[in-house]
Design a protein that fits this description.
The complex is a heterodimer of chains A (about 575) and B (about 110). Chain A has five domains: about 1-80, Glutaredoxin, CATH 3.40.30; about 110-320, NADH-ubiquinone oxidoreductase 51kDa subunit (Rossmann fold, 3-Layer(aba) Sandwich), CATH 3.40.50.11540; about 330-415, Ubiquitin-like (UB roll); about 420-505, NADH-ubiquinone oxidoreductase 51kDa subunit, iron-sulphur binding domain (de novo design (two linked rop proteins)), CATH 1.20.1440; about 520-575, Alpha-Beta Plaits (2-Layer Sandwich). Chain A has 22 helices and 17 strands. Chain A has helices at about 15-30, 70-80, 110-115, 120-130, 130-140, 155-165, 185-190, 195-205, 220-235, 265-275, 305-315, 315-320, 355-360, 395-400, 420-435, 440-455, 460-480, 480-485, 490-495, 500-505, 535-540, 565-570, and strands at about 1-5, 35-40, 55, 60-65, 170-175, 210-215, 250-260, 300, 330-340, 345-350, 370-375, 380-385, 410-415, 520-525, 545, 550-555, 575. In chain A, a hairpin with a 3-residue loop joins strand 3 (about 55) and strand 4 (about 60-65). Chain A is flat. Chain B is an alpha+beta fold and about 110 residues long. Chain B has a domain at about 35-105. Chain B is about 40% helix and about 15% strand. Chain B contains four helices and five strands; from the N terminus they run H-E-H-H-E-E-E-H-E. Chain B has a five-stranded mixed sheet with strand order 2-1-3-4-5. In chain B, a hairpin with a 6-residue loop joins strand 3 (about 70-75) and strand 4. Chain B starts with a helix and ends with a strand. Classes of the chains: A alpha/beta (about 575), B alpha+beta (about 110). At the A-B interface, strand 2, helix 3, helix 4, helix 7 and helix 9 of A face helix 1, helix 2, strand 2 and strand 5 of B.
Amino acid sequence: MKRILLQDTNGSLKKELRDFYVSLNSYLRDNGLTDKAQVVVVSNIGVYDKGIVAKVIPEGFVYINLQNASIPDIVQKTILNGEKIEGLVFDKKNKQMRLVLRNCGIIDPESIDDYIAHDGYQGLANALAMGPERVIEEMKRAGLRGRGGAGFPTWMKWNITRGVKGDEKYIICNGDEGDPGAYMDRSVLEGDPHSVIEGMVIGGFAMAAKHGIFYIRAEYPLAVERIQKAIDVCYTKGLLGKDIFGSGFDFDIEIRLGAGAFVCGEETALIASVEGLRGYPRPRPPFPSIKGLWGKPTAINNVETLANVPYIFLKGGEAFGKIGTEGSKGTKVFALTGKVKNSGLVEVPMGTTLREIVFDIGGGVLDNRAIKAIQTGGPSGGVIPEQFFDTPVEYESLQKLGSIMGSGGMIVMDENDCMVDISKFYLGFCVDESCGKCVPCRLGGTQMLHILKKISEGNGDLEDMVKLNQIAQAMQKASLCGLGQTAANPVLSTMKYFDDEYKAHIIDKKCPSGKCASLVSYGINKDRCTACGLCVRNCPVKAISGDRQSKYTIDMAKCIGCGNCYEVCKCSAVVRQ
Amino acid sequence: MAMTRDELNKLKQEAQSKSPRNWIRVGYSTCGVAAGAKEVLEVLTEEVQARNMDVVVKKCGCVGLCSAEPMVEVNIEGAPRVFYGKVNKEVAHRIMDEHVCQKRLVENHIYEI
């Protein structure tokens, strides 16, 4: 039996789709063909803004912009004869490429047999047979760069650590993922723990490090549990411990938990935290590759970086190097969140454009609102406005736009998001998480936040924007670690691209998006009000009074400007000024 | 007792030969669990046992469509392999009745990834 899948993305069966569904079923029934095909309404086929979309299984033809008139053709040609109808078919390209997430959602993360059945530990066996020099050469050929944000070539990091003399070296997996909205590393640790372990053993072998440490934040209990289980079973199978694959290479792994400080994702603070000290960063150089944990050479790699490594040694560095662009090889996993229809994890080859990620994969903006910007790189990144959405995603191209690739958070913002409010949020995050060791970050961040609050309350003046710029530059130049150096990026990039929004707050004392509570006021237009009472029920501070006869009014003395009434009103009676 | 390359390959073959014909995978990472994957897994496991069917129900990681969790992937002979999203107890029962038993796809919950 064939299946005809009909896409209904918002779950409400709009009239045209309902008609089509009914007509298709009647046609099948009238022609006695109900046993030939089942018509199924589905939530998503992954094709957007193309009218009525259907997919025929098992052929996999995707038909778009369907009309009732095409029903006989679809049934007679495709259902009965398996023919493709050229006039209707849509060539749906899968823009995703699963390399890091190759096993996520496919294998049982708690079963090593399942991992081994999917080529697990084959890459390790290959690497150990090659010898350390050739492992580094292979990594160089692959061109893998660090996925934690900075994009330092992984082979170079390993090679530096390898070149330092010393009998004790360490490799640390940085699983202290803390950017708001980013959770790629958690998913990899939870969904495919063995791949990260395998990558770590290969790294250890390349630089003759015998100890590996997983530094995972304590807020990820399931990730910790699965990594621990995976480590334990590796010991029993002889994949960790002494003489792995008879190569004479010994390797041990242990887990250390992060205690909730964002700054401990910075490598020198992370090392201090592993050593049992307060999570303070220290000036570099010396870099951890030369003098790291316990003063010994230490390579620190991100979870996603290590998850790439087994693939490289399974398929070869050259094959990996063919994916992506000249300067940025391979794929990148993004946590696509915010005002996007399909939020979740996406993995795309480097060089895919932001527009493809948000619209073709993410399905576009929620409620079909206008998109304003995309935020990448979390609190160290910046916002990218719509005119740059066709930029291919690469380390350098995003940096040029004043943002960064970062660890992979990607937050979609629509017309209802206020850029002053957004920069206040990110800066507030960094101020909370600043360790307080160096003055530029500790005081600079706080002062900038004060100014932003002033602007969002309508008390700012144009001089404040100059001050924001000055403090931001001082923080970038003088802060001790990456947290302070990049904390001002969201403010700088919003000021660069959304200068008019800042000026609206400062000069007109208005918040164009209606987010800054002090700058908006709400009222009810009694001519439009149908007295449904929705606003009353959704007001958290009981600022709306009245009844069905006299209709409703908002008491601005009580109103906190949350905008709930405005959002819920179905007849546009609540007005925002 | 280190493993040799040959032993690894033998393990791989054994594991591959044991892979079941009919299976149901439940996304069981933090995103899935938070959305209710635990009770979905329980319902599916109980149903398979109660009906004494040749279907393996197993946990897996997150496939990526976190907004549609809990996700369940179903591969049963005689019906196409599909992902169901936003699965709750009731949908889990329907998957067993309609998809697994009658080989008919369940409406309104299929997602393509």
